[in-house]
Every structure is written in C-alpha cells, then in structure tokens.
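User: I'm designing a mutation panel for Polyisoprenoid diphosphate/phosphate phosphohydrolase PLPP6 and want to avoid disrupting the core. Could you give me a predicted structure to guide residue selection? Please restate the sequence first so the numbering is unambiguous.

Assistant: Good idea. Sequence first, for numbering, then the predicted structure tokens:
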Amino acid sequence: GSAAAPLPEEDCMKLNPSFLGIALSSLLAIDLWASKRLGVCAGEGSAWGSARPLMKVIEVSGHGIPWLLGTFYGLCQSDSSAAREVLLNLLFALLLDLVLVAVVKGLVKRRRPTHNKMDMFVTISVDKYSFPSGHATRAALVCRFVLHHLVLAVPLRVLVVLWALIVGVSRVMLGRHNVTDVLFGLLLGYALYSVVEYCWLSPLSAPALFALW
C-alpha cells in the first residue's frame, strides 16, 4: 500500500523522447513513405513501368564512368591550353566527387529502398548504400561547372539545369534512392563546386600536372 518510489531523473528522460528525436523519426517515416509512393518506375510492373528504360538511360547519363571517360578523352584530344585547364579541373571535380560520396556512403551505411532492383549500371562495393545519391551529387556539380565555364545560349543553360533536376528525380522514380538521399546529394554537389573553384588547378598552381599534357 505504500507509494511507489519516484523514478530517477535520467530514467524519466528516457521515457520521454525528445522533440528532436520525434521530429527525426517522423521525417524518416515521411521520407520512406514518399519515396515508395514516388518509385513509380521501380519495376516493370510498377505504375510507370513502361518508362523504366528511359529512366535507365537518364541513369547512365549521370553515371561517373561516362563522365570520367569523356572528360579524359577530351583532355587528351584538346589542343587549347584554356580548354585543357577547364577539362583538367572537371576531371579533378569528378574524382573528388567519387571519393567524397564513397566516404559518406561508407560512414552512413543507409540501405537502398526495399523496392529497388539491383540492376544498376556498373556498381562498386559502396553502391549497396543509398545516402547520398552519387548521381544527384554529380549532376549538381557538373551543372554548376558547365554553367560557369562554358558559354551557352539561354535555352542550353535551361536544358543543363533541367537535366540535373531530372537525374535527381529519376533516382527516386527508379527506386534507387529515398527523397532525402537525392536532396542531400544535390546540396552536396552544389557545395562541392565551390571547393573545386577554391582549389582551381592552373599552370601556376599545378605546373607538373599541366606539363603532362
């Protein structure tokens, strides 16, 4: 019949989750729900399954290997010092992007959505993880790079921005990533370009590299 002894303060805190914990759990639940609803091309039997081949073409357009090979080929074929400087820095940006995304994926280790089909174009070990989206990071990085260093007409500049956005959206539609993977990837790629600009390679700052070409 005696009253129960009060719980220690730390136990009371464990029984009452913080507002931040609740908010993060809710955000994660919304992210998973929205990602599954938007994964309309995750399989041939999905709502937009017929558009899956087109989404996979877009996937290849944002993949690192075509960009690395194309940039390296252009660097070897270029006979202009200004063009070589731009292409060398683009190659540096792409390599930096690959390393950074691989490190973050290895640290976070977020699994890909359960509705994803592991039929991606050329994957490595860390590609089993989802956060962040390397395609989204690369698309944002390349978009900023191209807009700053190529003289393009306004319609082409709009197409470059649309391409970056479509690559990001396609990752969710294919079921490859959750929404937050893509959003963080776009932000990371946008910020990564500023790092590339700060570390810009030139004949003065990196004469040994330019001597190779």
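For picking mutation sites, this is relevant: Confidence is low (pLDDT under 50) at residues 9-13. The CA atoms of residues 31 and 180 lie 7 Å apart.
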